[in-house]
């Protein structure tokens, strides 16, 4: 083989040379082929024998990795360290052997051809051309040795292909295939094998020829033969069968052909009418072109027959002569296979196809040969065939129909060909059905269809709805004589739902007289009967009920019992549309309909499933295109958005119960579909009953719908409680039918929604701590359970609490609108709040009464919600709730409230944590002025004020206590009431003082729970505030303006203004001392209001007169005051004014002298000097006060001054009321606390002392 590229064709001639082994003689010379010719004669390489090495390498690597992983994860960890080397060495050995084998194959691979399909001279960009090996896979990128360089070394591929490292092609011509040694050797091996086969064939042929030649003998020469050959040039005495084949026949002309065909047509018509018996099922379509066209009954097949040996007399089967015999020339099938698409196979496919499929090829030759050689040749007729009549077995001819009485039995080739073609057509149809059944068994009906074909008996058996047969139970032990055990079916034989058998059957249906007469008329010659019986065959279907196809409970209605043959009238096979799928579907759907009715009939009247009285479960038909269930029971389901249902039926494909939830179609409802599938599996396995599973599905769907509504409202429902499963089961609380919704008011209370047979039931459940059964520790248990009347909430309730459920609403017992669900939650939450308040009142032994709000009147609820009339209010007597035995406060605090106190649930309409509102109405309404006070510290009279969750309406004197902590609402109210009672006592005291003559001008101006504002003198205000931090009172003072006082019709005493021109109350400067004094009075004495208001009213004139300008005022206490004179900044003098405890009189004395009662002089004002002549000032002041008092008395009596009157012991020596009295031998002065007296005394004292100190005395 040359190393140069070999051309595909060579025009060089072979050189003639002698054979060196046989010598130089020309007879032994032979042409010597050129190398090009030898290359052409070698066969091409067989690329199909080559396989890619990539999968082999991938398999070697994966196998090594898999064994290594199994060694590291499974083998080595489970054995000891001493045994670990052995599996490691074994792994290394096997892996090394695999790699060495692959290396050997890789080296062989380097010796095969490498075809190059891409152009190598156009790679200017430096990209490598696509190279593949003989199998179409990419060639190896490493260099391989080839036969064209004659070296086993691996040359540089770049040097061969012209692709250097710089990516520039050299542009030279290359071979399309780089030849390899292995490929060349393979080609030579194939060539030599073919040559050896030719040599072996030649030797065998020579051996056969030598054997034949040995038997040949030349004929002995005779005179007659010699004369014929010499005279005629041939031998005319040879047999005709020897020379007929080699004798040329005269050519037929067109006229001769037409004449022959006409004669043949007439002869065929004659044979059919007068000679042959034509069966009645054989339809003669036409006779033309020397053929008769016949059709079988139903048009399932057509045949073309002619007569051979026409015009020649032949010896018949009965010894007589006949004119030719019948010959089959063609067959067409008229049946169709029902398919949407495909090609004709036998009989063609497609429902609208009008073409018939003709037999051709080997199939046609086999059928025609069998018919012409075995079926149509004449057969001998048995003797004694006279007067057979009906006893001959021919059902379509009668002996009475022919006059003469006797009939002749004749050969009937047309009957035989009819029987043959009819049988062949039905056999083909059966095979087509078998093929379709096998396709179904391996496709749509996989695992549910078993196909068997008995070709000997021509029976196709289909077993549908296959189930594995459970193992047979062991036989019970026999104590008596051993009896033969009944036959046990093979466990490998599956259980079936039904059996369909399609077989070739002979139609036993007898014809009526009209059909028999027509058949006799068309039978051809009269007075003859066929020697063969006409077989009217068809494909029949038998349907038998299987072991698992029986209805539940052993129902045998309409013959549906195991082993019975069912009515198969609807399973007729249509030859024009052959479809085993239609037959199987029709049978299984009818079977599924029967089982569906048997399973679902008891459920149609079940109260557990029929939850809608106006829309009960019904049986509905379904189309085969949309569902495998021909009949389904539709169970309506509740749904707010769309109407859904559960469909239950038997699948015609599997024979199993199918449960479909229509609501599982939308996205996000996959759990409903899975739940339905689980129910299907449970029912089909016999673990549960169908009715129970459907009931559970309905319950789960209703529960899921309500749970979804709760989540849409923003709640977080749950299906379990922190309880043991057995405890929940005892309480009839199951996670599948119960929803637990925590209530905001209490962590231990839950709204329970249960789905029962009568509808959706709501109740409030409380969890309590109970002791464990073993006595060790505590656990949660179920406490009080309160049912909720759903109808009461939906319809609303009045005073009587009656409600009416809407009866015309479909499914109202199992459907709930979101607004009603929200109302149920709100109402349940309010009930929990009510129970919490109720438990607190019970724990304190406080009697109470629950009452619902009235429909109309001031107590009617303002909300339009139907729940407003359902939330009760607690009514408690204030004597039990506010008295000292409950609160520890003063009895006066309870007296200021009305006899009843109301406790309401607040904020229930929000659906969150509720609050408690305690309503207390005060007995006394504050007497507020028509215009509000004005001043530096006066409080405004707003309609309502709030303080610490307490609201007070001054217009109605109603106090509302708002408690956010519902668990401690009663305790919190009592604590707030105890603090509030301090201020309420002030209001009550002022109202009492206002009724006394001495304090009739004292009025309560405002009251806002923390501060009581009162007017203790015309134009002078006092604000008393309770400070809960110090648990005491804080007093502040203010003034009403002159305009306000004038509007009130009162005079303002000594209006004092500050620097800004505002009216100032002089008590404001000593509010700290007054606050301390008030708290002291509250703690230790009674009549606090009289004493404190009397103190304010007694000190007010003094403070007004001692206001600047004048001596400096020093307040020592609420009852002691000093007026200080500073002379020349070195000397200080003072006069002390002391208010006696009865708040009705004052004592005036020198501040430097010893005070009364023997107490030492007070030095808080610094060193004071005695006022010289102070007794004289006292005397003159006493005289002036006495004279003024007498003048007032005389003026009151109507007399004149200086007249003698009756002396009065209370006066200073006269008959008038005593207003002043000297003490300490004239060193001190006692005066009454009247406003005018005090003012005159202060004026006289200031003037007298001023005169003394001003004169320098």
UniProtKB/TrEMBL annotation:
The UniProt keyword set, sorted, is: Activator, Nucleus, Transcription, Transcription regulation
The UniProt regions of compositional bias labelled Pro residues, in chain numbering, are 468-489
**UniProt cross-references to PANTHER family, sorted A to Z:** MEDIATOR COMPLEX SUBUNIT, MEDIATOR OF RNA POLYMERASE II TRANSCRIPTION SUBUNIT 14
GO cellular component, alphabetical, reads: core mediator complex; mediator complex
Record's InterPro entries?
Answer: Med14_N (IPR055122), Mediator_Med14 (IPR013947)
Q: Which family is annotated?
A: Belongs to the Mediator complex subunit 14 family.
Describe the function of this protein.
Component of the Mediator complex, a coactivator involved in the regulated transcription of nearly all RNA polymerase II-dependent genes. Mediator functions as a bridge to convey information from gene-specific regulatory proteins to the basal RNA polymerase II transcription machinery. Mediator is recruited to promoters by direct interactions with regulatory proteins and serves as a scaffold for the assembly of a functional preinitiation complex with RNA polymerase II and the general transcription factors.
Would I find Nucleus among this entry's keywords? yes
Q: How does it assemble?
A: Component of the Mediator complex.
Q: Does the keyword Transcription regulation apply?
A: yes
User: GO annotations under biological process?
Assistant: regulation of transcription by RNA polymerase II
Q: Where is the composition biased (Low complexity)?
A: 927-945
Mediator complex subunit MED14 N-terminal domain: residues covered = 51-112, 182-308
- Which top-level group of life is the source organism from? Eukaryota
Q: Which Pfam families match?
A: Med14
- Main localization of the protein described in the UniProt heading: nucleus
Q: Where in the cell is it found?
A: Nucleus
A single GO molecular-function term is: transcription coregulator activity
Residue ranges with Polar residues bias:
144-154
Q: What is this protein called?
A: Mediator of RNA polymerase II transcription subunit 14
Which parts of this chain are annotated as the region Disordered? 1-38, 127-172, 339-361, 465-493, 924-946, 1196-1215
């Amino acid at each position: 083989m040359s190393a140069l590229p070999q051309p595909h064709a060579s025009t060089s001639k072979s050189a003639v040379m002698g054979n060196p082994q046989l010598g130089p003689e020309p007879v032994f010379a032979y042409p010597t082929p050129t190398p090009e010719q030898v290359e052409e004669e070698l066969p091409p390489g067989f690329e199909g024998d080559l396989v890619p090495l990539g999968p082999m390498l991938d398999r070697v690597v994966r196998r090594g990795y898999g064994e290594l992983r199994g060694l590291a994860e499974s083998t080595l960890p489970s054995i000891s360290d001493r045994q670990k080397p052995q599996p490691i060495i074994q792994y290394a050995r096997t892996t090394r052997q695999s790699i060495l084998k692959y290396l050997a194959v890789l080296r062989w691979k380097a010796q095969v051809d490498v075809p190059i399909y891409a152009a190598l001279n156009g790679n200017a960009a430096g990209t490598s051309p696509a190279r593949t090996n003989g199998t179409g896979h990419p060639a190896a990128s490493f260099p391989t040795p080839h036969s064209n360089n004659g070296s086993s070394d691996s040359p540089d591929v770049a040097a061969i292909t012209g692709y250097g490292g710089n990516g520039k092609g050299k542009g030279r011509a290359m071979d399309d295939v780089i030849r390899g040694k292995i490929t060349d050797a393979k080609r030579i091996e194939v060539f030599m094998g073919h040559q050896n086969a030719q040599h072996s064939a030649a030797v065998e042929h020579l051996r056969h020829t030598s054997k034949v030649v040995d038997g040949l003998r030349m004929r002995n020469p005779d005179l007659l033969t010699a004369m014929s050959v010499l005279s005629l040039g041939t031998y005319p005495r040879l047999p005709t069968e020897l020379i007929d084949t080699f004798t040329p026949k005269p050519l037929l002309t067109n006229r001769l052909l037409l004449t022959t065909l006409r004669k043949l047509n007439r002869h065929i018509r004659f044979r059919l009418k007068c000679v042959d018996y034509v069966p009645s099922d054989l339809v003669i379509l036409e006779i033309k072109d020397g053929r008769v066209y016949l059709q079988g009954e139903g048009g399932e097949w057509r045949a073309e027959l002619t007569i051979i040996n026409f015009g020649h007399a032949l010896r018949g089967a009965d010894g007589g002569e006949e004119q030719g015999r019948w010959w089959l020339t063609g067959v067409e099938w008229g049946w169709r296979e029902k398919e949407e698409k495909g090609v004709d196979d036998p009989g063609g496919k497609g429902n609208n196809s009008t073409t018939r499929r003709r037999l051709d090829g080997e199939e046609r030759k086999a059928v025609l040969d069998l018919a012409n050689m075995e079926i149509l040749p004449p057969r001998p007729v048995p003797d004694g065939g006279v007067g057979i009549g009906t006893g001959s077995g021919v059902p379509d001819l009668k002996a009475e129909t022919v006059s003469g009485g006797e009939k002749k039995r004749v050969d009937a080739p047309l009957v035989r060909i009819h029987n043959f073609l009819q049988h062949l057509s039905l056999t083909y149809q059966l095979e087509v059905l078998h093929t379709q059944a096998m396709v179904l068994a391996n496709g749509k009906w996989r695992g549910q269809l078993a196909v068997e074909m008995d070709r000997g008996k021509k029976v196709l058996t289909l077993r549908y709805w296959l189930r594995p047969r459970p193992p047979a139970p062991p036989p019970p032990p026999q104590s008596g004589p051993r009896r033969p055990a009944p036959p046990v079916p093979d466990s490998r034989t599956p259980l079936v739902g039904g059996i369909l058998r399609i077989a070739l059957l002979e139609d036993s249906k007898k014809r009526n007289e009209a059909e028999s007469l027509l058949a006799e008329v068309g039978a051809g010659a009269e007075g003859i009967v066929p020697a063969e019986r006409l077989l009217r065959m068809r494909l029949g279907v038998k349907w038998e009920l299987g072991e698992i196809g029986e209805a539940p409970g052993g129902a045998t209605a309409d013959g549906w019992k195991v082993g019975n043959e069912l009515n198969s009238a609807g399973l007729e096979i249509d030859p024009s549309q052959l479809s085993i799928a239609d037959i199987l579907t029709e049978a299984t759907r009818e079977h599924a309909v029967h089982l569906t009715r048997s399973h679902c009939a008891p459920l149609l009247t079940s109260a557990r499933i029929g939850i809608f009285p106006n829309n009960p479960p019904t049986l509905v038909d379904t189309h085969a295109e949309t569902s495998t269930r021909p009949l389904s029971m539709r169970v309506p389901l509740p749904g707010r958005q769309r109407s859904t249902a559960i469909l239950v039926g038997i699948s015609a494909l599997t024979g199993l119960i199918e449960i479909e939830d229509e609501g599982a179609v939308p996205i996000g409802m996959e759990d409903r579909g899975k739940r339905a599938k689980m129910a299907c599996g449970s029912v089909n396995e016999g673990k549960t009953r169908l009715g129970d599973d459907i009931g559970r599905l309905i319950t789960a769907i209703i529960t899921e719908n309500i749970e979804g509504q709760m989540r849409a409202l923003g709640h977080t429902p749950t299906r379990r409680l922190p309880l043991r499963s057995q405890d929940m089961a005892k309480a009839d609380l199951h996670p599948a039918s119960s929803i637990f919704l925590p209530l905001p008011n209490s962590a231990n209370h839950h709204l329970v929604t249960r789905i029962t047979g009568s509808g959706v039931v709501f109740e409030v459940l409380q969890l309590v701590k109970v002791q464990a059964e073993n006595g060790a520790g505590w656990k949660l248990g179920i406490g009080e359970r309160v049912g909720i009347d759903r109808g009461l909430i939906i319809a609303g309730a009045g005073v009587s609490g009656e409600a009416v459920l809407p009866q015309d609403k479909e499914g109202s017992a199992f459907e709930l609108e979101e607004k009603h669900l929200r109302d149920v939650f709100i109402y349940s939450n309010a009930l929990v709040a009510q129970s919490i308040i109720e438990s607190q009142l019970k724990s304190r032994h406080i009697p109470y009464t629950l009452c619902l709000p009235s429909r109309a009147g001031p107590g009617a609820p303002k909300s339009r919600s139907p729940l407003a009339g359902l939330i009760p209010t607690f009514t408690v007597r204030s004597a039990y709730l506010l008295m000292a035995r409950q609160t520890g406060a003063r009895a006066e605090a309870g007296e200021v409230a009305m006899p009843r106190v109301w406790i309401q649930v607040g904020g229930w309409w929000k659906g969150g944590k509720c609050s408690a509102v305690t309503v207390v109405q005060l007995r006394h309404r504050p007497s507020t002025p028509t215009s509000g006070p004005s001043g530096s510290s006066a409080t405004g009279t707003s309609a309502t004020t709030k303080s610490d969750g307490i609201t007070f309406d001054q217009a109605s004197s109603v106090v509302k206590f708002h408690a956010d902590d519902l668990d401690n609402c009663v305790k919190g109210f009592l604590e707030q009431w105890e603090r509030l009672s301090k201020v309420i006592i002030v209001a009550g005291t002022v109202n009492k003082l206002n009724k006394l003559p001495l304090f009739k001008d004292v009025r309560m101006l405002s009251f806002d729970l923390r501060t009581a504002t009162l007017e203790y003198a015309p134009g002078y205000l006092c604000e008393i505030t309770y400070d809960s931090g110090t648990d005491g009172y804080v007093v502040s003072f203010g003034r009403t303006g002159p305009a306000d006082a004038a509007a009130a019709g009162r005079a303002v005493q000594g209006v004092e203004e500050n620097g800004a021109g505002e009216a100032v109350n002089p008590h404001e400067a000593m509010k700290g001392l007054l606050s301390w004094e008030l708290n002291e009075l509250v703690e230790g004495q009674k009549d606090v209001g009289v004493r404190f208001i009397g103190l304010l009213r007694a000190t007010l004139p003094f403070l007004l007169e001692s206001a600047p300008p004048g001596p400096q005022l020093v307040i020592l206490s609420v009852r002691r005051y000093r007026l200080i004179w500073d002379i020349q900044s070195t000397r200080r003098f003072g006069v002390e004014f002391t208010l006696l405890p009865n708040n009705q009189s004052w004592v005036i004395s020198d501040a430097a002298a010893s005070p009364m009662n023997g107490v030492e002089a007070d030095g808080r004002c610094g060193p004071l000097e005695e006022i010289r002549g102070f007794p004289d000032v006292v005397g003159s002041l006493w005289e002036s006060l006495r004279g003024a008092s007498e003048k007032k008395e005389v003026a009151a009596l109507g007399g004149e001054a200086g007249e003698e009157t009756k002396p009065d012991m209370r006066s200073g020596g006269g008959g008038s009321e005593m207003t002043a009295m000297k003490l300490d031998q004239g060193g001190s002065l006692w005066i009454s606390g009247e406003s005018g007296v005090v003012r005159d005394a202060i004026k006289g004292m200031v003037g007298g002392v001023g005169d003394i100190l001003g004169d320098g005395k």
